[in-house]
Amino acid sequence: MTMMPNFSLAASTRDADVVAIPVAKGPLVLGDGDGSGIDAAFLEASGFEGKSGEVLVVPGPTRTTVMVGVGPVAKVDAHVLRRASAAVVRASWKRTSVALCLLEAVPEGMDRAEAVKALVEGAGLAAYRYTVHKSEPKPCRVAEVTVIAEVTEHPGLQRVIEHAGAVVEAVCLARDLVNEPPGSMTPVRLADVAVEVGERAGLSVEVIDEEGAVDLGLGGLLGVAQGSDHPPRLVKMIWNPAGTATASVALVGKGITFDSGGLSLKTGEGMMTMKSDMAGAAAVLATMSVLPVLKPGVSVVGYLAVAENMPSGKAIRPGDVLRTRAGKTVEVLNTDAEGRLVLADALALAVEDGADAIVDLATLTGACVVALGSRIAGMMGTSDGLRDQLQAAAHSADERLWPLPLPGEYRKHIDSDVADLKNIGNGRYAGALTAGLFLKEFTGKVPWAHLDIAGPAFVDADDAWVAKGATGFGIRTLLAFLDAYVPVGADADADGADEEV
Ligand code: BES
Ligand code: ZN
Ligand code: ZN
What we know:
Layout: E1 6-10, E2 18-24, E3 29-30, H1 40-45, E4 55-59, E5 64-71, H2 78-91, E6 97-100, H3 112-126, E7 144-148, H4 154-179, H5 187-201, E8 204-208, H6 210-216, H7 219-225, E9 233-239, E10 248-259, H8 268-271, H9 279-294, E11 299-309, E12 321-323, E13 329-331, H10 339-352, E14 357-362, H11 366-372, E15 376-381, H12 384-397, E16 400-403, E17 421-422, H13 431-440, E18 448-452, E19 458-459, E20 469-470, H14 475-484
Parallel strand pairs: 1-7, 2-5, 2-6, 6-7, 10-11, 10-14, 13-17, 14-18, 15-16
Antiparallel strand pairs: 2-3, 4-5, 8-9, 9-11, 12-13, 15-18, 19-20
Helix pairs in contact: 2-3, 3-4, 4-9, 5-9, 7-10, 9-14, 10-13, 12-14
């Protein structure tokens, strides 16, 4: 597991190697730090503008000062602070201890706990780098991050630090799982990790193996996996709060440990990042792993639909028909549209288990990446209330979701000539929506939201607290969502009936 820094509170910067001081923009307003001796005239002369995330590293005889921009005073919020602490850690990569005097930038009236949480997240997530296979690894050496706050605040903030640290750990766990080469992160291995991590955290974990999948009729999962030498797994991770749960929420993750496309083989280029096709499952696993720390008031069941999509003499062929758990048959016309096949079974199980709401995360379509790029996930669903709550949670996490429709007019595009459904739409248009419409078929009357994370789950460059490679996108959104969850109903027009017009 990639190391992450230890987080603590202190009243003074003591013997930290690096002291970070906020600078607000125009006219420059510097935090005090503990008297770095740096003044506004010096900063202006060096061209420093105080823009959000801008840093100036000023080495000194005993310690280094990192001046970090936070933009205009009036606009300082959790997002700005998260970015600022991330920038500080990136600028302090080879130092051991960093003291953050960034609460000095928190405006009157802003929740200090929110601010501290953002600082810990920014610092912890920016310190991540996947170095497991490097002969000369250059990991972040920052081992200690100290948030400077007045002593009287410490008791109240201690728990905030611990919780935020646990969240960072979960995101980094998901990043590690996705970054690991697909030859070693096989379905069986991912299921083993879920058991190990889940049980250590205090969850109950059930694993359905190939035989179990046959017994349960998980035809979508089995169909996708049949071309691979690695058998599939369906993992259930369960969290129940103490006392009466206010509702039961299901989280469903697409866990294709490698997506070659199957017989509808991807191009060499298209396959290069396809170890990331398990990012939805990794996000669900990681989210589940911190619930015993964060203790939301809802029951949560995580479903990981885990398989490898490979071509072989045993693989499903375009034209084959699969019978899913829900009894609906699917004509597979493109074996590369495999995510919806494994999710169909997992969604059906969530419905059967009596979920009050379902949220799925899946690196589902290239079309969604074309539409929204690498920072924004597409969101579809059957409940305005659910989508609103997810949107609010995403906002607090600084992860972006953009609403996409599930147009009844397009439902006919997934009609099959020979089965109940086909697994692709007509032509190349609206690929993210036809995928969403397909999933909707398996959600019954349960309020459901689908997050297509194909873009933001895996990126090609570091950016603030986002690490290159696997990002862990969605975990902090889900945690904020579960923490604030209030029961919802489905939209009046989304009762599971086809909305054909
Ligand atoms: N895993 C891919 C989607 C994907 C593409 C994720 C790019 C991340 C980056 C998915 O299984 C897939 O291949 N979808 C096809 C569906 C098509 C055949 C209907 C796609 O989007 O091309
Ligand atoms: Zn695919
Ligand atoms: Zn896929």
